[in-house]
Design goal:
globular, 13-stranded antiparallel sheet, outer membrane lipoprotein receptor (LolB), chain A
Length: 262
């Protein structure tokens, strides 16, 4: 009898302690929000994109400028510098948490920009393993749930499951769930897995080579996106990073998107 009481007491303590730990843990929504808050407001960078498929490698040079305004609107402009067949191609993204998101792709051969529809969000960006959604994800389109914690390379990480809020969005983005692994200490995404309708991992992303911009503000400068079904991968490497450049909102315009690159 004493043994049973002691066992019951131990179980009760474990349950209470576990409940207190879970109660003190951030929610999935809070983790995603904090990760966004600790992202870079203004960034200029040069990028090298490598697309590797069927043993072949294509290399492209790009520039990227991004800006996050006080009202939460995030804007970015990507321009292709080389090779010659993609030089001048541009992509403009405006992520408005309180309004309609906008994405435009400019191909010099067409002579005018084309707006990317919501149905195209899951489509390949310029033949890479990145989609338009990867370039400018809208956190408001997902429900974020903390499903656990793990240790990756000696770092403790939150594991957050993001599920599209509607079936229409799921069809648009091309995955049923996204599992994000976010470091607890500095709130940066180090890995993500994308699940198909059957719950299998169809794509995975790994981010590394983090640079500390200011105290507790970090940026990953090396990213690999791998498509497990197509057996291809895309590598993005950042260089010549400049932070807090105070770039104007006016820079992110159709006019700037269509200007010839120098």
């Amino acid at each position: 009898m004493k043994s049973n009481k002691l066992l019951l007491l131990v179980v009760l303590i474990v349950v209470l302690v576990g409940s207190q730990v879970m109660a003190g843990e951030l929610t999935g929504e809070e983790i995603i929000e904090k990760t966004d808050e600790l992202s870079v407001d203004d960034l200029n960078a040069d990028l090298e994109m490598k697309i590797i498929k069927s043993g072949r490698e294509r290399v492209r040079k790009l520039t990227m400028v991004s800006h996050k305004a006080d009202d939460g609107v995030e804007k970015s402009l990507i321009r292709f510098l080389s090779p010659s067949d993609v030089r001048g191609t541009g992509f403009l993204s405006i992520d408005n948490p309180e309004g309609v998101d906008e994405q435009y792709l400019y191909l010099p051969a067409l002579g005018k920009p084309r707006r990317i529809s919501s149905e195209e969000r899951g489509g390949s960006f310029m033949g890479s393993d990145l989609t338009y959604e990867d370039l400018s994800p809208s956190k408001e389109d997902y429900r974020h749930k903390l499903i656990g914690t793990e240790i990756i390379d000696e770092d403790e990480v939150y594991v957050v499951e993001s599920t599209p809020v509607t079936e229409e969005i799921q069809d648009d983005v091309g995955f049923s769930k996204k599992i994000s692994y976010i470091r607890k200490d500095i709130f940066v995404l180090i890995k993500a897995e994308y699940l198909d309708d059957q719950g299998n991992v169809s794509k995975k992303m790994v981010v590394s080579n983090f640079e500390e911009i200011t105290d507790n503000l970090w940026y990953g400068t090396y990213m690999v996106m791998e498509d497990l079904k197509k057996e291809s991968k895309t590598i993005l490497e950042y260089d010549n990073l400049e932070y807090d450049t105070d770039i104007s909102d006016d820079y992110f315009s159709i006019r700037q998107l269509t200007r010839p690159v120098r």
